[in-house]
Sequence to fold (325 residues):
Amino acid sequence: MLLRYHLPAVKLLPALLLSLCCFAAHAWPTKPVRIVVAYPPGGGIDVLARQLADKLTPAWGQPVVVENKPGANTILAADAVAKSGDSHTILMTTDATFSINPHLYAKLPFDTQRDFIPVTMLVLLQQLLVAHPSLPANSLPELISLAKSKPGSINYASYGSGSQPHLAGEMLKNKAGIDLVHVPYKGISLAVPAVMAGEVQLTFAGIASSMAPLKSGRIKALAIGGAQRSPLLPQVPTFSELGYPEVETHAWFGLFLPAGSAPQALARIYEDSRKIISEPDFRQKQLIEKGYEVVGSSPDEFAAYLRTDSASRARAVKISGARAE
Fold:
């Protein structure tokens, strides 16, 4: 005998809507996902991208692959993602793309505000002002006093015009009223070795790349960016507490989607990446112990931060006089 169960439709509707919403929220991804990294393999941002990909693959049930696309100061990678029009293509880059390049280049092949959706800032990292041990200054005030007594005799390395170290160096010169000579190198990995070798006297560098030479005495730290001292180097004062809050040395790693991406993609990428960087073991060993400040901002928070950061970097680029073609 066929049994029929009749339930009022009005009682079925909420449950049906809930199940549909849940299905929609998990309807992405429907194919393999690419994380396009704007830097070469091996660096900090590439390592973090691959760690995320390893954890996101089982969570999403689709392969998550990292594609390195370095070149043109992150412009190649950003342009490729902007033009992909694909919710399954994620850009992982730094502040260079969105906070610095729009003020450094007369024209870009994309619009940073129109062509991208900010997903989340994963981490923030502050740079140290480091010096060769032979420099007769063991603090920022001593450096400034030395530079004022011998204008143009002290040089600092960066990894190119408009790079974070260049902007920080020129802002320090401007605010402290000193004359330092800028020496641009061709890569981010060359500046600290140049200081260790005595080719230049100063540079700005991340904690991760500085810890070993600091411990061995091959370089010394004079100051660090940020609002608070690093727990890894509590003895190093911040530029802010020394009276130079305008000297910003930070960089950040963030995720972006091309404009027009599905809301489901935005929600899942944000929620799942934030979950990964919030895992206690991952957070401590892979991020905090490497000098990263864990952020995991929401899309709205990240968008608001980008506006402030861009305005700050615009001032720094103007002071530096940096231009790029």
